[in-house]
């Protein structure tokens, strides 16, 4: 009938059973419906219809089932199509296939068991398709619901009640699920195959599906592959190919190997796991979105494409990882990228805020813009290499065994960079400033930093263990400007910093437990309140240094300044400090080093209160000006010109100086000191020692022209100019100079003028004159023309008529000495004095033992009669005075006359013929040192006008403001000799005044020179006499100064360096005090009470006694002190030197030239002079004492 919908309706038939069933419906538009049971017990079922084919019942066959329809084929929910040993095939030529029931095909054993669905339109399935063999769907569209099952390679296992269905083990010999669609394939259900699942479509959607197979191939020809919320488990290879996007959000994908070809991957919250060790290669030109997703592989990982968004995502592999975003962005915020082997990441921008990128081996990162903020971590076990333009590691962490970082700008504020070896290059700036208590740390065993600007402020350690800043075992830093204000850089082995322009270390720390080097030819160092410290060697090479701060080295320090250098804060160096300054070095502090100090500069200034000191001190310069202290066990100075001025002190156990010009000059009433505790060597061109300046050696003294390699004086000096100053040695002396001038710079002469009236008579104009009123008187009588001169002494009186007469005033001008300040050369031992011009003018050369003059020494001249010494002159000159006399008045004639009384004329005499009278006497010369040759008598001044010079000298002493009112005049005891001790307070910088009330002495010797050695002093006398020094006056000086006062008095009294056979100051001073002690005990005397004349008469031996004297300070204040007074019992060998002196125990002068002497040459044991000519002038003394 026309209303019948189906040509064959098995539901109406009830059932159809046969070995083979073939249903063919040829009526157009009419189909076949099976709501019953169609079964072919032994053969096949084949249904062909022009209409719709609907199955809601059971359709089964032993063999193949073939369904073919021009229209829709439906296997509805209750429908079962079951091939027991054959293939199941359904074809809709014009429409689609709807599969809501069950399709089952067995027959794998027979090589069958396949399910094949083909439709022109859509294959739609919500049911199950189970095949022992393959399943193939082919249609315009394929759509399976979440409830559908597509299973190829099913193993059917009968049980007691049912049949268990499982997928055979996956293998390449397994079965295939093949879905082919012209447009889209949507498979939301279970997609299972024992081997391959292959989906081919324009678009593929396997979202929410459960897909499992041995292999998987998804081929999307035009659209996306959409796998959201799916679970895909593939034993072997999963091949995913799409020209657009691969979308896997919330999906779980697992395969031994993924082969992906797509433009983009969206794996938000998705999970990819590649279980094999093949390369996971993602070539995605439009990038990856892996937010909260996981990409995990057991093989290498390679990504090349556009943006990679891995926010909260995970990319991990036990092998290598390669990512290249093709100059796009890699966003790893809170993400994890991990590889057991190498990582190479190439991207334009990396955002790793709170993210982690870590490699168990090497990590190579190229990202022009790199953001590793907010606890971002870039980690590698072996090596991390970062190339960027801007690397922002604020609060981030970069850590590796070796870190190589190259960037334009590196911001590590609150960040951490840790490595065993770190090489950091920031081509514009590295910012490691601290913004809090944590981070801002760059730490490595070996750290190398190269950047134009290094910012490391506020990173200084808060306790003993630094946690911020730059920390390393070995560090090498190269930068133009390093800002380290309150910053810290700490190394345990070696810090080597090259800074070309500026290092600002204000309140900062640069610390090394071993060596430290900071260098830069144009470097300005500002270390205000900063610390630069090393336990090993320290090297600073700078252009300029401002604000010294603290600089310490427990070993050596080598500092070079390529400019002027002003040091106002001490440098602490335990071993040797080598300081080199290209220009001027000004030391404004106490620079004291442990072992050695070597300074080289164009010029050196060491002003008052400054100090340069070490065990070995060596200064090399063109010009050295010292008003402070230079000291050392060995002190060596090499300079073109050395000016030791005022308060300047230069000390050394061995002091050696080489200078073309050595000036030891007073300044503002302060006199400088050059002093050696053991040996003094001066290699000089010109030595100028003026105005109470002191050159002293407690051992031997050598003066020559230069220093040899052992710093000993050798050669010949040009000029030794010792003017009103002292050169002294307590040992031997050797002075070799072309010219020596030992002179009094402050000798001031005066003129004493006497006027005396004279009236003289003579018988003739040119005869003997008789002084009227002195020798007698001219007299006459009125009875005779004759007049006579009556002598007071009774001699016969000459008489005659007329007498010549003169009446005039005689003016006598006599040279006087108003002030003396002689130079002194004092040698306690032997002196060898060699030179061409040796001039001792008005001064003293005192030698304790033997004096040898001249480069040659000749005791005998057996054959060589002619001796040549290149016309060398030895001049020992004393001061020559002059007496000028001039008479001014009238001459007249005393003539006899007879008066005109005619009765009794009388005779008389009258003066007439008056004429002006002027007469100048010849100049009379005298020597101020007047000593006769008499032995055994006191030397008394003559009655000539020379006495006035003595008065002038006393006036000079009065100018010293010494109060003698309480002392017995020394001249009152003629058999005891004494002179006033020198009460002029010393100006030499070797001494200083101590006005403190608790000090026992007024003049203290610099303890830096004496090394705090206790010298024998008058405490020895106080202790012997049990006198309490606390109740006594302050003593004038300490032991060292007291011995000098004693030596000066002995020299003034005897002209000798020592008394008798004494050869040391100590023995001599002790013996004199012992004598004073014996005398005090005998007469019950107390130190500090002056001796009177009667007490001095009782002296029987030389002694020292402490007498009170008053000295005046610069401000006019007077202080009473105790002074050691030397008393000598008169002996025949004593002399009284006041002029130029050469004295010694033995004197041997060997000269090939001329010896000129107008002073005193005195030798106790031997005086031998060998010269071509000997000239002994005036009243001077050439005295062989014994």
TrEMBL record:
<dbReference type="InterPro" id="IPR011050">
    <property type="entry name" value="Pectin_lyase_fold/virulence"/>
</dbReference>
<dbReference type="Pfam" id="PF05594">
    <property type="entry name" value="Fil_haemagg"/>
</dbReference>
<dbReference type="InterPro" id="IPR012334">
    <property type="entry name" value="Pectin_lyas_fold"/>
</dbReference>
<protein>
    <submittedName>
        <fullName>Hemagglutination protein</fullName>
    </submittedName>
</protein>
<dbReference type="InterPro" id="IPR008619">
    <property type="entry name" value="Filamentous_hemagglutn_rpt"/>
</dbReference>
<dbReference type="InterPro" id="IPR010069">
    <property type="entry name" value="CdiA_FHA1_rpt"/>
</dbReference>
């Amino acid at each position: 009938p026309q209303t019948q919908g189906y040509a064959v309706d098995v539901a109406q038939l009830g059932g159809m059973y046969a070995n083979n069933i073939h249903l063919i419906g040829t009526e157009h538009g009419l189909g076949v419906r099976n709501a019953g049971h169609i079964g072919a017990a032994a053969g096949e079922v084949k249904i062909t219809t022009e209409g719709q084919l609907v199955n809601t019942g059971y359709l089964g066959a032993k063999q193949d089932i073939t369904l073919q329809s021009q229209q829709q084929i439906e296997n509805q929910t209750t429908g079962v199509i079951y091939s027991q040993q054959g293939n199941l095939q359904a074809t809709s030529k014009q429409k689609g296939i709807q599969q809501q029931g069950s399709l089952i095909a067995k027959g794998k054993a027979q090589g069958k068991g396949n399910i094949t669905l083909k439709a022109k339109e859509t294959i739609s399935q919500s049911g199950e398709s189970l095949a022992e063999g393959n399943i193939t769907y082919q249609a315009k569209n394929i759509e399976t619901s979440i409830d559908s099952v597509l299973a190829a390679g099913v193993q059917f296992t009968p049980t007691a009640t049912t049949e268990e269905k499982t997928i055979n083990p996956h293998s390449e010999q397994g079965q295939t699920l093949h879905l082919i669609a012209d447009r889209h394939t949507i498979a939301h259900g279970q997609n299972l195959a024992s081997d391959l699942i292959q989906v081919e479509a324009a678009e593929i959607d396997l979202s929410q599906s459960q897909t499992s197979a041995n292999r998987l191939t998804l081929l999307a020809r035009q659209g996306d592959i959409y796998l959201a919320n799916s679970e895909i488990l593939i034993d072997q290879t999963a091949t995913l190919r799409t020209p657009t996007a691969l979308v896997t959000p919330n999906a779980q994908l697992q395969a031994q190997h993924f082969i992906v070809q797509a433009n983009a991957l969206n794996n938000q919250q998705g999970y990819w796991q590649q279980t094999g060790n093949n390369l996971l290669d993602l070539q995605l030109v439009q990038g990856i979105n892996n937010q909260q997703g996981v990409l995990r592989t057991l093989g290498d990982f390679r990504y090349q494409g556009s943006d990679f968004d891995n926010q909260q995502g995970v990319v991990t592999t036990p092998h290598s990882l390669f990512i290249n975003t093709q100059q796009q962005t890699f966003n790893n915020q809170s993400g994890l990228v991990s590889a057991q082997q190498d990582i190479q990441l190439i991207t334009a921008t990396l955002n790793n805020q709170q993210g982690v990128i870590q490699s168990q081996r090497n990590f190579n990162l190229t990202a022009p813009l790199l953001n590793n903020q907010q606890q971002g971590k870039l980690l590698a076990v072996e090596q991390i290499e970062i190339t960027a333009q801007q690397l922002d590691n604020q609060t981030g962490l970069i850590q590796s065994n070796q870190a190589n970082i190259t960037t334009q700008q590196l911001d590590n504020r609150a960040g951490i960079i840790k490595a065993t070896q770190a090489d950091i290059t920031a081509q514009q700036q590295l910012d490691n400033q601290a913004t809090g208590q944590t981070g801002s740390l760059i730490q490595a065993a070996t750290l190398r930093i190269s950047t134009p600007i290094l910012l490391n402020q506020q990173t200084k350690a808060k306790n003993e263990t630094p946690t911020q800043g730059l920390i390393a075992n070995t560090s090498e830093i190269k930068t133009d400007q390093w800002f380290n204000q309150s910053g810290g850089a700490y190394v345990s082995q070696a810090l080597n910093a090259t800074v070309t322009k500026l290092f600002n270390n204000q309140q900062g720390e640069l610390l090394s437990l071993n060596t430290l080097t900071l260098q830069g030819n144009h470097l300005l160092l500002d270390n205000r309140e900063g610390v630069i410290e090393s336990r090993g060697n320290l090297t600073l090479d700078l252009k300029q240094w401002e604000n010294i701060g603290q600089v310490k080295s427990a070993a050596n320090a080598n500092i070079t300044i390529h400019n002027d250098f002003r040091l106002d804060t001490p440098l602490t160096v335990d071993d040797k400090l080598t300081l080199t300054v290209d220009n001027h070095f000004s030391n404004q502090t106490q620079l004291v080093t442990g072992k050695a100090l070597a300074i080289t500069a164009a010029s050196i200034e060491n002003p008052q209160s400054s100090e340069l000191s070490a065990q070995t001190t060596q200064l090399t310069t063109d010009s050295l000006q010292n008003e402070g202290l230079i000291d050392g066990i060995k002190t060596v100075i090499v300079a073109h010109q050395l000016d030791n001025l005022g308060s300047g002190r230069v000390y050394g156990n061995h002091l050696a100086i080489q200078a073309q010009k050595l000036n030891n000059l007073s300044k503002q009433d302060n006199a400088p000191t050059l002093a050696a505790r053991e040996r003094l060597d001066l290699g000089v061109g010109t030595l100028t020692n003026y105005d109470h300046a002191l050159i002293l050696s407690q051992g031997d003294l050598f003066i020559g022209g230069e220093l040899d390699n052992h710093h000993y004086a050798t050669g010949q000096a040009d000029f030794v100019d010792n003017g009103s100053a002292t050169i002294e040695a307590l040992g031997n002396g050797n002075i070799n100079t072309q010219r020596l001038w030992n002179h009094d710079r402050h000798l001031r002469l005066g003129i004493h003028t006497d006027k005396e009236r004279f009236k003289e008579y003579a018988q003739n104009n040119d005869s003997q004159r008789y002084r009227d009123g002195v020798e007698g008187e001219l007299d006459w009588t009125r009875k005779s023309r004759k007049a006579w001169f009556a002598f007071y002494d009774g001699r016969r009186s000459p008489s005659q008529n007329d007498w010549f007469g003169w009446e005039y005033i005689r003016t006598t001008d006599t040279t006087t000495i108003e002030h003396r300040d002689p130079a002194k050369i004092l040698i306690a031992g032997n002196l060898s004095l060699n030179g061409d011009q040796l001039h001792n003018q008005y001064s003293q050369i005192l030698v304790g033992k033997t004096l040898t003059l001249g480069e040659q020494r000749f005791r005998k001249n057996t054959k060589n009669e002619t001796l040549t010494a290149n016309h060398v002159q030895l001049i020992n000159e004393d001061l020559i005075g002059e007496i000028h006399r001039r008479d001014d008045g009238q001459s007249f004639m005393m003539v006899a006359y007879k008066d005109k009384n005619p009765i009794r004329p009388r005779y008389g005499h009258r003066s007439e013929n008056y004429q002006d009278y002027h007469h100048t006497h010849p100049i009379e010369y005298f020597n101020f040192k007047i000593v006769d040759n008499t032995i055994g008598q006191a030397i008394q001044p003559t009655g000539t006008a020379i006495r006035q010079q003595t008065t002038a000298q006393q006036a000079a002493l009065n100018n010293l403001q010494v109060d003698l009112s309480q002392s017995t005049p020394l001249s009152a005891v003629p058999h005891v000799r004494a002179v006033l001790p020198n009460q002029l307070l010393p100006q030499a910088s070797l001494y200083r005044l101590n006005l403190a009330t608790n000090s026992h002495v007024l003049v203290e010797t610099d303890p830096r020179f004496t090394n705090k050695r206790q010298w024998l002093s008058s405490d020895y006398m106080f202790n012997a006499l049990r006198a309490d020094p606390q109740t006594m006056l302050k003593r004038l000086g300490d032991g060292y100064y007291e011995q000098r006062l004693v030596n000066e008095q002995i020299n003034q009294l005897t002209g000798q360096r020592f008394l008798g056979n004494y050869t040391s100051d100590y023995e001599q001073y002790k013996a004199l005090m012992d004598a004073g002690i014996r005398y005090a005990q005998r007469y019950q005397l107390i130190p500090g009470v002056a001796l009177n004349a009667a007490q001095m008469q009782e002296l029987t031996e030389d002694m020292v006694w402490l007498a009170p004297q008053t000295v005046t300070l610069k401000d006019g204040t007077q202080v009473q002190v105790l002074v050691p007074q030397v008393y000598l019992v008169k002996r025949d060998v004593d002399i009284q030197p006041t002029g130029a002196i050469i004295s010694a125990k033995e004197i041997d002068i060997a000269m090939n030239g001329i010896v000129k002497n107008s002073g005193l040459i005195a030798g106790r044991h031997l005086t031998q002079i060998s010269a071509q000519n000997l000239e002994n002038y005036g009243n001077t003394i050439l005295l062989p004492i014994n």
